[in-house]
Structures
1.
Amino acid sequence: MATLPSYHVQHRSHGPQKTCASCGQIVLANLTFCPNCSSDMRSIPENVRSAPDGRTQFQIPSFLLADAPSRRYDDPEIGTGIVWVGLALIAIPALTRNLSPLSLGAWAAGIVLTSIGIARARGDNRAMMRAGLVTAAAGLLTLLVLGNQIVRHAEPTDRDLAVSGIQQTPTAESNSAETPMQAVPTGSSPMFRGSPEHTGLLAGPALAGSPYRVWRYDTGEDLRSTPAITGGVAYFGTRDGYLVALDLVTQKPKWTFDLGGYPVRASPAVGDRTVFLASGYNVFAVDADTGELRWKTAIDYAGESSPTVVDGMVYVASKEDHLYALDTTTGEQAWIYKTDGLLFGSPSVDDGIVVIGGDDGDLFAIDRETGHARWKVAFESAIYSTPAIADGLVYVTTQDKTTTAVDLNEGTIVWSYPVGGSASPAVADGVVFVGSDDGAVYALDARTGGDPLWIYATGNPTVESPVVAGAHLLFAAGSMILSLDRSTGEVNWRYPVGDLVTTDPVVLDGYLFAGDKSGYFSVLTGDASLATPPPTEDRGAGGGTSGSFGST
């Protein structure tokens, strides 16, 4: 009888085995006869080698006789865990609605990890099944999230165009103290800190009497875009990347415009019925009445810099060390100026000069026509504030708690005083008002500096940039908005907003507008302007002198 070669039999053998006592061939344990020599195998136990010469038999450990797998896998359960991590990374852009390079990088890494996890898990059927179920569930969840976003923010035209005509109802609760505004506000604060010089001098008038909240609008969370207000409409950006045109009378948006999902920290600027705002990697020009896109121009990452509009040009700084001059009609670049440091503040413009400071401590004066530097002053500390220009002087605060006055045309230092920080100064009628990082507000002589005219200690380490409206100096300290008499520093009133105030106050027609960390856009007024005062439980403290006050 023909026999198979022994190597062929060994190659095909799997499972429990026996060793033929006659020929030494290793065969499957379930065979009755040896396929090599036809010897009877029934009496031979499994895994026992019987030598023909009668030598001592011994038991071979089972792990030595077990077949080696065709491919070695580490613990397949690890694969399922890798799949979960990968899917979590993939979900980041969908859940956060953020398309930044970091978010997209997480998405790409998630795809790679998910693929690796599935490859690791396929060595175990149960692990593979779990990985498949997790993948299917995560995919369904992602589709639901994306579908919800599409339904909420569907656009009838190209994504670059505005979402016009979308009406949103304020989600803030109503109460008995909230009433409609009595008339359309006629005042205007068309850009950050009121004007291209960024002095913080607003049209006013300020609130009359004790303050109370008229109404508030819920933007979602963390509202940091100081509103630009004109024509009875407040324009501001939101954390989820939208430009909102909020009608102050109806308390509802006229329109919203999708800026691409990047959180907005800058304030819009309004000019020639166009709203200008930088977000992400573009500057947008949006029709103020319809919300339709007029143009957009690519820039470096926008950051916190608010645009400034003057005489048909919009000046805006990217966080990544570039200052741009763009035509307001077409968006074409007139010039670009590169600095050596990152730019957090906004460009201030006066007398044909654009002034801005960087985090490397350099303060630049750029010619508006040519885009060339006229002068540069190097400070020893970073500049995060926006300079104020008034009466031929530039006032700037630096991180080492210093306020300095610089000649606008010559670039020479006129005076310096050791107070200041991140907040931008306000200037009115020969006085500079500085919110300092030491928790106090200082009034300094704009021409000579010297000892403060008065000091008000807020008792709070966070003091935001002050603004001036009539005889009032208004600013936020923590969750409190305060009004001081700007001549004496005495407290007119204090109002607790409820959360950290994150925008500059804007004061027009007896109303104050501000945003907070909870995302509320709040509208305040004073009870002296009403025939019937509101309930007392929603009023701020008026007329008190809480907090220490010093006069020098």
Note: Residues 307 and 316 are 5 Å apart (CA to CA).
2.
Amino acid sequence: MPGLNFLIQTAIRMKRHIISIAALFAAISAFSQVYDEKGNFVDTTAIYGERTDSLDAAVFVSRQSGNYLSKVKEIRTEVISAAGLCKMACCNLAESFENSASVTVGFSDAVTGARQIRLLGLSGVYTQMLDETRPVMRGLSAPFGLSYVPGQWLESIQIAKGSSSVINGVECMTGQINMEHRKPTDEKPLFINGAVMSDTKMDLNVASSLQMGYKWSTVILAHVSGNLMSHDMNGDGFMDEPEMLQFNLSNRWLYQADNGVQVRFGVRALQDSRLGGQMLQDASGSKVLYDKDRYSVVRENASDVDPWGSDIFNRSINAYLKVGVPLNEDNSQNIALIADYSYQDMDSYFGSTEYLAGQHSAYANLLYQNVISDSHRFTIGLNGTFDRYDEDFSRLLWIGMPSEVSHKGVTDLANAGVFGEYTFHAGETFSAIAGLRGDWFYGHGFKVSPRVTLKYMPIDEIVIRANGGRGLRYSTPLVDNIGVFSTGKKFVGSYNEHILEDAWTFGGNITCYMPFGASSNTYLSFDYFRTQFGSQMVVDYEFGHNEIHFYPLAGKRSYTDNYQLDFSVDPVERFNITATFRYTDARIELHGKGLVEKPMTSRFKGVLNLQYATNLNKWIFDFTASVNGSCRVYDFMKDLKDQDGNLLYKNGRTPVYPLLYAQVTRRFKGWDVYVGAENLTNFTQKNVILGTKDAGGLVNPRVSSFDASCIWGPLMGIKAHVGFRFTLWKKA
């Protein structure tokens, strides 16, 4: 019974690792002295910035909304605070956006568990992900990167829409999502969070912030998660989620010299394995899962139990260094260096398809900042990125007869740029940021990218913002669209090419703060953004029968218009209501079809979040309801029918569906205990696995019509969770 043995061994390994990690961090914290000789603890969000006492910051977060729009930022920025990250299980970053209509998160396919975000109606590859201003989740790490950031490692997330600063690179197209981790200066020698889901997924996080004198401090972050059992709730023969096991360890350091020099550095290592796909039974009734070593696209004996599936093993290591050097006493002039290196290794198998790849990535940013006065400042600098992909790809399909394609080689992608950014402030009434970059792209020559941001406050209750600019990125077609591996379709065209994608995004926002409610943070906000591509890699499911075509946009049109309305109010003390509605109109010109609505892109999303806390926050009640709009399905999905013979997609569109989330938290001294549930409506997408069915009524994954990548809705029904958070505070 190999399947049962695998589960037993996995459970034993997880138990041992969980106990060992918890014991290690408890021991470290118990014997560490965390006294500061000057009596204060400070931190910065980047190299130099606003210095904030960590205890005051924690108290402030407990009084604010989980999601709110920043009033002080020049660019339209939504903040998910530490309180917002505790509203639901939030086991990882992908699960932290359920209260936001700005960001939509969905599955790339029904097999691998890969999650992808959408911002301004476009795939997350067009959103620049930042780890405290360092670009992350690029290339091979993008498909699963959201699940590699534990939510309880973070103290906040900032979602900035549109073209932002030129300082962090040129890859920002639809916006930036910046993650702020727990700080070395936190007054929390030990934090432990554990959660268990009803689908047997378990999650454990440990954080320890230690101050070793006044100059040195460090934070150690550990994570282990996985699920012990696989499920097939809809009876289609495929696991609803893959069997997973992840280990994640990070160590971050801060050194603060007496002369104002700051040095930040850290390392992180990760290992993740996931096994998904068909879950069949052999003649003895034992469960049989996909085995990459014995799988064959052609079965000599039709009665052989040889499940199709995916087997993915990811490993990565990252190291970074940030140095800030003040050039005068008031730090109005400083030099900063940011350097980052990461290696990502992904061994992935999908049936008889192999994609074995490694990626070396390096990023460096050298900048000089001069604050001339309260009204004028500028930043100039040099930065660049380098990526080396070592790929071994082969794909064997059954299309009338066995058909194989393969590719093996090393690809270098690089850019280096010079930038300048000028900021003007006219008090609190008006501010403007004008930036310009010039980048040399390997194989594509020199490109210029201007960006501008404006903010105007005619009165204190009204904030008007506008911004626009250009973004550029190399496409990585197979990795950017990993769901294509979970199909039996033939790849046609430029799937191995790395064209330079080019987009302009511009838009604006107006926020009105209103004088009612129990707090001063009652607001109504409206924003509009448009993204228009000059160059784009198109992945077309509709140009050929049972084929996926990859081709450049080549002068055709591709654009997205995005409208959003936000409202937040505290009608009474400790009760917050936040409502958001987003409408998206995404269009693209496809071969043979002309300008059409982009397929599988939701038209709208509405979110209502209610949070109530009793006196002293002893009990916290959270409720979130969302309504998700329809999207245009691919042409080959229009005639699909359910078991009763009714069309699944009337008028070629998916149904509108609701999702409900609820959680109750009880807070004790140093402890939080919470229980909650997701998808209380129990809504799931029907027929997630498409294709010709065999004699047993299950989809045959060995034929060209097989497709598990057409995902638009939830794959699993109601899921309950229970968890705890333990915080040990530094003694006064």
Note: Residues 2-728 form a domain with the Maltoporin; Chain A fold (CATH 2.40.170.20).
3.
Amino acid sequence: MTAAATAKDEALAALRRGDTAAALAAATRAIAADADYAEGWAARGTARLIAGEALAAESDLAHALALKPILAEVHLNHAIALISLGRLDDAERSIVRARTLAPALPVDATFRQVLDLRRADFDRTHSREAGFRLVLALGAVDLLRDAETVADQCLTAFPRDAELWMVKADLALRQRRFPDAVAAARQAAAVQPDDPEPAVNVATVLFDSGDSAAATEVAARATEKFPHSELPWTKLADIVRDDSAKGWTAVKAAALTPDASAAALSRGLWSAAERVEWDLVDDLRARLARRLDEDSANPLRLCLHDMPMDVLRHNAERFSATRWPERRAIAPPPTAKAKLRIGYLSPDFRTHPIGFIMLDLLRHHDRNKVEVYAYAVGPASDSPERRAIVAAVDKFTILSELSDFDAAQKVRDDGIDILIDLAGHTRFTRLGILSFRPAPLQLHYLGFPGTVGARFNDYIVGDPWTIPLGSETNFTEAVMRLPRTYLVNSHRPDVVPGWDRARYGLTTRDIVLCAFHHPMKITRRMFDAWARIMVAVPDTVLWLLADQAAAKTNLLNEAAARGIAAQRIHFAPRADLPLHLARYAIADLMLDTTPYNGHATNADALWMGCPVLTLPGVTFASRVCAGLLDVIGLRDLIATDPDDYVRRAVALAGDRAALAALRAGLADVRQSILFDNATFAREFEAGLFAAWERRLAGLAPQTFDVAPVAAR
């Protein structure tokens, strides 16, 4: 134990026996021994608080929290000091922070002090400001009826206060009194007709009340009245969904408002990429890059675009920090045990690529060494994939309806040693569960191709291609680097038999270049390369995956602009996996995209013996396919730049014998190490055990390489 820690313990012991002077002296010695020791400052601040020295106590406690902001009890003591100084707003924030960090911490008495002081202030002054703050304070502790009573008193005196009417609407909505909520929201809009926020609030309340049609009408009227404000356009897009024509109009308009947020810009960028509107993509990407200096956007949406790795990391850190602040860990200390209990958390244990490709890893875990728990969040499912996952694990639990804290408590109560998040920043993520650190060791794996940017994740799982040596500084997590590919590849189902080229309008004379990626992954630079290949090899056709009419039209227009006839572009609809896999059997070459590769998509192609040409970039998302190809010895299909990509594709497409030889070489790929899931599971477990040993030893997470395991 350090001298500072020893002195701090002496200070706390003195406080317990009521000797404030001795506590102050010991805490001061702790600070002298280590000026950066937060607990020493906290001990002295607590002693000064007990001694009635509120000003000095507040200073010491604030200093402790600046050094270590996750100390829940210090936040509470800081609140008490702030109350003594009359700084009620700051005290409220400290109480909320304490309760967020430690939900079981007894904060009610302290909050009651704030309420009593606010009520006294309101009773004395009857001012709008005092009443408004009392309403918010009562609402924060769910005293909703009391809050409404005060709100009504304020509105009697200030009937044209739109902000008070909106708070009243929210209070009614929280009590599920929908007509009252709608009436209050409409009143706010009536008294402040020149502000878009109250109008948008009406749409929000209507939508939350279950009246989507009325919500759409109100939001649409707001867009007409406030065409240059992001708020109504964003709300309209949220209500009608951005995959509809009306939704796209709203998303686009929100992104094009003069002061569009990073969220609106990135959402517009995502939708523009889906529709293959590349001029708009270029404009929004440039605007978003400037906006990210002070704002943040969903990190998944940035993966589609060439952005420096340090920008991606800083954005992920800002985005995660504002949504999932790290709270006090609720996990017990790690203990040595014969079997580790591993928990996988995912919204995609259903008909979803993640649920499917994870299946063999779940099955192949060594039950002599580990127990496997699966925690489902996100949409309900009774699919065959869900049932297979349930059968593959030792225990399957649905957490979808639980709060983040209650779900985290469930994970803790299950005694999970290592919790592995499979979602990151993808849809239906529940990173808030991990923010409570319900397991002693926490990892991010598979679902999101990059750093999550949250300090509550200890490790990210990668491989030599996705996170090469020297790139670790671009990740907030330490790296657990697997020896081959990080991407587990469960065996695919049998394909639908009997399908041939004629069924798809293709001929045996065609050299079929397929690119079965979501259209949003197709960039202008990528399509330029494909067009150059097709111009150089006239027998080629391009087979794309597209359902959306706008994307098809725009892709055909882009092809025509590059001299490619429409007859040479073919579209495949979305299909169930067996039917989708059958299409690779009649294609000649799969063309990968960058900066967002096909991941499971390219593994599907290789499984079916279809070679894949890739162009890796610098980001995780752009380097996955290169790792797959390297594992099976196909480095000749890894291009070094766009010109090299075109040269290699032209050489292959112009040589049918070479293509046939390449396909023949993939005939036994299903028996290769790429699809050896038993060996993958052993290597994955070796990494988990190595990380666990560091955790047991009390060592901080550290990047390490997992040694390859010999295939059985």
Note: The chain has 32 helices and 13 strands.
4.
Amino acid sequence: MALFKPIYLRFRIIITTLLVALFQFPFTAHAQQDREDTLKATVFTSRRQANSLSKGKELRTEVISSTGLMKLACCNLAESFENSASVTVGYSDAVTGARQIRLLGLSGVYLQMLEENRPVMRGLSAPFGLSFVPGPWMESIQIAKGSPSVINGTESMTGQINTEFRKPTDEIPLFINVVGMTDTKTDFNIASSLQFGPKLSTILLGHAEGNFKSHDMNMDGFMDDPMRKQVNVANRWFWYTPELQIRWGASALYDSRLGGQEHHGWQSDINNTRLNGYIKIGKPLREDNSASVAVIGDYTYNNIDAGFGTSFYSGRQHSGFVNLMFRDAFSENHDFSAGLSTMIDSYYESLDRYLPTGVNNSFSPVTTNLVNARAYAEYTFHQEDKFSTIIGLNGDWFKDNGFRLSPRVTLKYQPFESVILRANGGRGLRNALPLVDHFGVFSTGKGFIGNYLSHQLEDSWTYGGNATFYFHEDNYLSLDYFSTRFSEQLIVDYELAPGQIAFYPLDGKSLSDSYQADFHLEPSSHFTLDLTARYTDARTTYLAGGMKEVPLTSRFKGVLNLQYKTNLSRWIFDLTGSVNGSARVYDFMKDLKDESGNLLYPEGRTPVYPLVYAQVTRRFKGFDIYVGGENLTGFRQKRVILGERMADGMVNTSTSDFDASAVWGPLMGATVYAGIRVTIWKTE
């Protein structure tokens, strides 16, 4: 450390000098003195609960703070939920690296993703969008279960995940995070918040990642993780006066990934480009801010060019979103909001899919315009901290489906200081994108039949409740139950006919029931324990076989997280273990055998498996060093690539039996990483 310190001090002085010269920013380098502001910030951050349930929210909301995000490498949003049993993240297939998220036992397409309360990650960006949000950019994540506010629309069928980013007003002129893993994946992140006086501030965000070597740990001839390159930049601005507040920004991303067989044969070659710009304008109508008007505008362009063996899919998306809102807290106990909103999605898609088996699913370029215009109103009543209710009504007009009403109701009751009871229910609506919503279908040799070009309007009702019991300050036990029932849904069926994937409307019942218990304990200021258990029962009616458990959906998950911190959080030790329950496999997987000739799924279900994550962080003045490991048990799914085996043991990708989408477990073995976070704080 003595050798490192002079280099570090010179580095800080150089960076600080450059920032002063470029931006005339009023802060000074003080590398050679003890930084009291840094120590204070460190103490404050360490005391924030990493994962907690919000006391003040009417809806059951889990908050993952910046402290929680630093418990793991958290290179992107997809890797930020290992400490939470509410959310499950897995792979949509074994070759593209596309991640899928589950909440309340259902696919992430039924979950609304928000970025500082703006709808994002929709349409063509959904398969890879979780990997487009760098972890070091985020300040916190809020996971809300059930039917949230009508203000952001009705696409939130099972809940919402809102990400809060580092702010332009942060007192951090420079933050750098670099992490490298033993699988050669490397991440670089930079953030710089700058204030140009009391009214105007901005933040610059940069991210680059890539891996330099492929891995095939299970020796099946396919890369376990695709070769990836990503560049991601964003610039956010904030203008503030008591009379007007304006937030605006822009971002750009390029992502490429090459998966499949590395040197020859079947490959997936995918390139994503995304551009986004937004503006949020708010104006108080009273001096006490009890009434205000606001307008939000957002534009996103997504482009994806994807090759899968002999198939090629191309998609373009232009999306515009405008939301005009009015709010009036006309008394201490009453609050009213209303607004008008429009979402326009224009898709341009083409598919060249002629398989070696003779199947032809190709279609010429098709343009689809989906328009949703809506009016909404929401009334909130609250009586101190004892009782509150939110009643909302959303009136949607869909271009191809007419007018629909969507009510939502939330109740919160606190009979005692240590007990909070919540109940919630409402309707959700969304247009399906069959091929993009189920991106793994491209990584198969199966033909498509049915309505795979239909943008069916899916319709569901979600209801549930939560009871939280607090004891000894912020320690708590929380119990919740939520259920989702579909009246209209697009079913994607791998089991209707051999060698085919069928797309058809639901004909019968489709439901998911989710039960969860959370226990949070802080026996001392140095030690924290979080224990969570979740059970899910998700079933759907299929044309063949009737109502069955949804395939590859784990029934239960348990998570234990332990954290120990020394004085002033100089050392932080984190350990996370999870047990992942079994799931029903597809019928065509029941006869699969391992190398010894034993059935992989003797009861038609996946095995129960553990995962272990660990990290040690050492904090210094101005920087942190951390090392850790992921999937330390080394558990991997066997026979990830399905199909007929040839003489050399490789899978024959030219038959309809070829399937790389039947993924239920980890694809990579144990991984070790090391990283450094450098923070330069503002001084007066």
Note: DSSP finds four helices and 35 strands in the chain.
